[in-house]
Every structure is written in structure tokens, then in C-alpha cells.
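FAQ

Q: What does a record look like?
A: Structure on top, sequence underneath. For example:
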């Protein structure tokens, strides 16, 4: 394999990501065919009910949007958020083809988008850059109700003494899909600020993919959790 970018970086690069996905969009669905089952497991883990509102953050070409729409029913709402215009264009065509009327698509960076809808559930499906962005998570959770179910899935490192070759492959394989290598050992960790019970539920593909689940705590509960370490010192 060719050399990887330096492992230490400062977080996602939005401009680079938009450019990367401009090139990836046309072949994206074909390149992700092996994660179709993981996507379905992630949607089931949300435990959606008819009438719920769910955000698919970083929805890409919209592969999970029809699954989510079917889960919340005609009285529910699906909000797809995607920063790449090219990926969103494919998602729009998918929505049209499925004739779903309960899906809205917002094109923009997750740290800047806004909708009047409030999420009952959040899905982060193979959106590593979003999960490593404090600004993006802060903005999304402003539009999320307390006790909302949050599910994240994507690639991760095995991070064992014997796994260096596999972890290298994981980094190399995803080099075009993410702009930061930070947090790959525990990609869901930043979500724990908002969902203290966020935990790894399941691993896939020999440990190189994960599914984590938690619930969004109330603002008061989050503030208390953040303050606890300070009061104990």
C-alpha cells in the first residue's frame, strides 16, 4: 500500500472532504455494498416508532433513508443531512425513486445546518468526520430532544498488539472517506459527552466495524456529569 497521511491531525477538514466526495460520489454505492447489513442493523437499533422524527447525519447517497422512512411511517419524519452536493444529488434521486413523502434532505455541513424539526433519534452511519467534530455534534444535539436514541456505526481500529497490519489496512481503506484519523480506536467517544451511556454494542467484519448506542441525556444531567470531575479535585 502507498504511505498513509500522518496519523496525528487536528480534526476533520471540511473543504477537503467536500472535494473528496465529489470524486467518490459516482462509485460510492458500489464501494459500500459490503456494509448493507450493518446499515440495516443500525436502523433496527434505533427502535423507531411510527410518528418519530429521525435525523440521518451524514446520510451520503441516502442508502438508509428509505429504511428509516418505513420505520417511522407516514406520520413520521426523516431528515437527511449531507455536506456533499454530489452525494446529496444521488440521495435525491433515490428518494424520488422510492416515492417516500416523509423525507427532507438538507445540504450543508453538520455544524451549520438548521431545521425546525426536533429529533427523536439520531443515526451516524459511517460518518467518522462528523463524530470527531465538536462543532458538528454540538449543533446537531441542539436539535435533539432529551432521551433520544443515538446510534453510531462505522470503521474502527482493533487496537491490539497483534492487529497492526489490520489497523493499517483500516486506515488505508478509509483514507478517501475521512479526513481525520483521530478517534479511530473509539469513534463513538465524543458522543459520550451527550450520551453518557453510549457503549459499543456489536463489532462486525472481524472487529474493523462497530455499532454503538446510547441515549441523549438532559442538559442538566450533562452539566452535572461535566462538573463532577472538577468538584472531586
Amino acid at each position: 500500500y502507498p504511505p498513509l497521511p500522518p496519523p496525528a491531525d487536528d480534526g476533520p477538514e471540511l473543504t477537503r472532504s467536500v472535494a473528496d466526495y465529489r470524486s467518490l460520489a459516482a462509485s460510492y454505492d458500489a464501494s459500500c455494498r459490503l456494509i448493507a447489513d450493518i446499515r440495516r442493523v443500525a436502523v433496527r437499533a434505533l427502535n423507531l416508532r411510527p410518528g418519530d422524527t429521525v435525523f440521518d447525519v451524514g446520510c451520503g447517497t441516502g442508502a438508509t433513508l428509505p429504511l428509516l422512512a418505513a420505520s417511522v411511517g407516514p406520520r413520521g419524519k426523516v431528515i437527511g443531512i449531507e455536506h456533499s452536493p454530489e452525494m446529496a444529488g444521488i440521495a435525491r434521486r433515490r428518494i424520488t425513486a422510492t416515492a417516500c413523502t416523509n423525507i427532507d434532505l438538507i445540504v450543508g455541513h453538520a455544524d451549520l445546518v438548521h431545521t425546525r424539526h426536533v429529533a427523536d433519534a439520531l443515526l451516524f452511519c459511517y460518518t467518522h468526520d462528523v463524530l470527531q467534530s465538536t462543532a458538528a455534534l454540538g449543533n446537531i444535539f441542539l436539535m435533539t430532544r432529551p432521551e433520544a436514541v443515538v446510534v453510531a456505526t462505522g470503521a474502527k481500529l482493533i487496537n491490539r498488539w497483534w492487529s497492526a497490519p489490520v489497523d493499517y489496512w483500516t486506515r488505508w481503506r478509509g483514507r478517501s472517506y475521512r479526513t481525520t484519523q483521530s478517534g479511530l480506536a473509539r469513534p463513538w467517544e465524543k458522543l459520550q459527552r451527550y450520551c453518557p451511556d453510549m457503549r459499543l454494542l456489536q463489532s462486525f467484519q472481524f472487529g474493523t466495524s462497530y455499532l454503538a448506542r446510547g441515549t441523549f441525556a438532559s442538559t442538566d444531567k450533562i452539566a452535572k456529569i461535566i462538573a463532577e470531575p472538577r468538584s472531586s479535585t
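Q: Is there anything notable about this one?
A: Helices lie at 14-31, 36-45, 65-72, 85-98, 128-131, 134-142, 164-173, 219-231.
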